[in-house]
Specification:
Strand order of the largest sheet: 2-1-5-6-7
Strand content: 5-15%
Number of helices: 7
CATH superfamily: SGNH hydrolase
Helix content: 25-40%
Shape: globular
Order of helices and strands: HEHEHEEEHEHHEH
């Protein structure tokens, strides 16, 4: 592994590990409703801290940008949605986020035993920030896949009934040159072959029918507004697709 790649990986991990949970929603009492939770990155939550090195809070990550989570929460009144995603996530730290989310939703049952109120979990750790690696890296992909599997196992152990794992957009949908023009610190990115290899690896890992989760492709006809992130119409469509998958989960 080159020194440049090593430095890039370390930098991204530092960003992930030390970015606060800006998106966590405070638990509301009493818990007389079902809870749905979301783990992911900027596709799931566009907020970032003020001193984020790439995404300034004065732009779309300041709150004006709406993700599919914003739309699904407005469409679905059956669940109290807790968005535990965060911008800048490179999708290998989700197990720690999920552990905090599950603990946040614990509530005593009739016997006084703590149980999670989380009934639905959507895992969006698909690796959109993986784009900024200079080339395909199998070690990172293995860590990403293992992280998602660990999240599924942890959620099942807490009794989460419905788990959704989302897929990746097509390479053709991105305009990385445009995005880099907006954010000059991002000067290096993966090429088309490397991205497609990663996308296929992830698809093969999770697309087969599995009793523990449902794999959903919400990013068809994907259109961005900045070269990377989904525009409003795309996010609305993704929300509709994910909501339908939740409703049809047991059918």
């Amino acid at each position: 592994m080159s020194k440049r790649l090593s430095l890039l990986i370390v930098t991204l991990f530092v960003l992930v590990c030390f970015t606060p949970f800006v998106s966590a929603v405070e638990w509301v009492e009493p818990p007389d409703y079902s809870v749905a939770g979301v783990i992911g990155a900027s596709y799931e939550n566009g907020q970032a801290i003020d001193n984020h090195p790439v995404a300034p809070k004065t732009w779309y990550l300041g709150g004006s940008y709406k993700t599919w989570v914003n739309y699904i929460a407005s469409l679905d009144k059956n669940f109290h949605w807790i968005n535990y995603a965060r911008g800048g996530e490179i999708s290998v730290n989700g197990i720690n986020q999920l552990n905090d989310l599950l603990i946040q939703t614990l509530w005593p049952d009739a016997n006084g035993q703590p149980v999670s109120r989380l009934e639905v979990l959507v895992i969006g750790n698909w690796g959109n920030d993986y784009i900024w690696f200079p080339y395909y890296n199998q070690q990172i992909m293995d860590a990403l896949v293992q992280n998602v599997n660990d999240q599924i196992d942890l959620a099942k152990s807490f009794g989460v009934k419905k788990i959704i794992v989302t897929g990746w957009p097509k390479w053709e949908a991105f305009d990385l040159d445009f995005f880099i023009a907006l954010f000059p610190p991002l000067t290096t990115h993966i090429d088309e072959a490397g991205y497609n290899q990663a996308k296929e690896y992830y698809y093969n890992a999770f697309s087969q029918p599995n009793p523990d989760y449902v794999f959903v492709e919400p990013w068809g006809h994907f259109k961005t507004f900045d070269g990377v992130h989904p525009g409003s119409a795309t996010s609305k469509k993704a929300a509709s697709i994910i909501l339908k998958a939740i409703k049809k989960y047991d059918k």
